Every structure is written in structure tokens, then in C-alpha cells.
């Protein structure tokens, strides 16, 4: 039995936009998931059929809501980030229009459920590392009106709004605090994935609304600092937020460089969160096209196999919550 999906994070929008981007951008982006010298990669511009982890064909017949992040690189200035965001999202919009018979754009959280219930596919705009807001804080309201439902404040480095684990002592900046206030006013969901522990603590102090970690795992199961501590998970749980399970090997097990993760490793993170009372807080946050993947879940096409493992291990009710119900309920209640 296949279950509907609401996946809270992928980088596919970037991946299919790279081939048409000014080369100056990918020459500066040290972690770009794109090799301009690879002829096959240069042709991967379609959302319908491509060599990426995620495509409409790989989603198959499963009702599927996908959060498509514009991932902004730490090397880009806030001003450059605006141009990059516009290019990536304009390309995604073009692809959605080209395949309007197979996927729709959600402009508000209320748009998501009707498409899932009609067995369709729906795209949700999000931003990873929203440093573009530092160039113009009014963009928060503008992009919310354009359909951006969720944004995170940083990636790995020290940033103008907040910082990741490359700068573990740096907290949310004064401008970052203003952006959080503006996001809450606009009902744009705050995503804390990639924040360092100092910034996470600041978020607890600065927020009045629930927030999410769109693609983060359990640090108790895998000690990577990108993962959430039990205390952090509990804060998200108690505030009514959700956490998306990330498929990145380095976030699944400590020895991933020598032992390839399996479905059992993904289940261990879910199981730990369930033991912490997280039945209504677990979700999916694959990170498709933003990382290498284990062979067990090497593309979106293998999602039914993962769902079958979840159903056998946790039962259908928990699997349904994990795959889409928890995330959908969160967006409907707290999104715009």
C-alpha cells in the first residue's frame, strides 16, 4: 500500500535551474550539486524526467506534495541571493506551467490538501538559507504573498541572519531577530534545520509560534551536530512543530563513510522520536538532490519501498502521519 507524501525538503529546484544559470554563480558555489562538464547533468532541466533524485516520473502515481527549496549558497551576498532566488524559482514556475496536467503550485497551505486528495502532485515554495532577506527585509512579506510558505535562516557558515555549525558560538543577529518577527507576522514558517545550537536557543527565546526542522535527524542516534538533540526535538514537539527525516548518510549513522545506511537506519531515528512521544511530530524531509543518498532510497522512485518498511515496523497509522499527515496538519494550522 502506498501512502501520500508531503516531503518537507529537496534541492531539486536548484539542480534543474543550474544549467541555465550564469556560470559565475556555480564557479563560486563550492557545494553545488551540479557539474557543468557533465553533458548529462547539463541536460537535466526538466521537472518531468531527469537524472536527478526527484522528478514527476519518479513520484509516480503517489499523491505527492513537495517542498521545493531554493537553496542559497553561503558564498553569495544577500544581493546576489535575490538574483539567484529569482532565477531558480522562475525556472521552477516554468516547469510547473509546462506540466500543469501533472503538478500544481500551492500558493497557500490550504492549496495542498485538495491536490493530495485528488491524487495529484503539488509544489510548495520554500527557501533554505534566506540570506536574501538581509538585502531587503520587506522581501519577507513580498515572497510570502508570492507563495513562499517556509524559510530557514542559515546554511553551514556564519551568516547575516544566523549561523550554522561552522560558527558554533554565533547566535541569531539583530537583523535575524527582525526577520523572525516579520516571518511570524507573515505566517511564513521558520525552519531551524542547519542552525547551530546557539542559534537554536535564540530561536526558542525569539519565537512566539511553532517552527519546524524540515530535514534533520536525531543526534542521540547519530552524533552529527547537524542533527537535533533530544531536548531540541522536545521543544519542537511541545510547541506543536514537526521534524522531517533526512536521508543523508552522514546524518543517519556515525560510521556512514564505511557502512552504507539502510532502511533500518532511517527507522532507528523515527523509532527514537516515537519513544520521545513524537507520534504527531515526525515527518519526511528527504533532501533529494542536496546530498548523496544510500542505495536503499537512491531516488524518489524508491519511496514505496520505504513506506512498506515503515508500515511493517510502525503500523499504517504512524506511517500515514509520518509520510504526510503531520506535516500537512502543521502547514494548515500554522502556515498562511
Automatic annotation (TrEMBL):
Enzyme Commission identifier(s):
3.4.13.-
InterPro entries in the record:
Metal_Hydrolase (IPR032466), Pept_M19 (IPR008257)
Q: Which Pfam families match?
A: Peptidase_M19
Q: Which UniProt keywords apply?
A: Dipeptidase, Hydrolase, Protease
Q: Report which superkingdom the organism of origin falls in.
A: Bacteria
Drop me one GO molecular function for this one: metallodipeptidase activity
A GO BP term here is: proteolysis
| Name of this chain's protein | Membrane dipeptidase
Q: Which organism is it from?
A: Collinsella ihumii
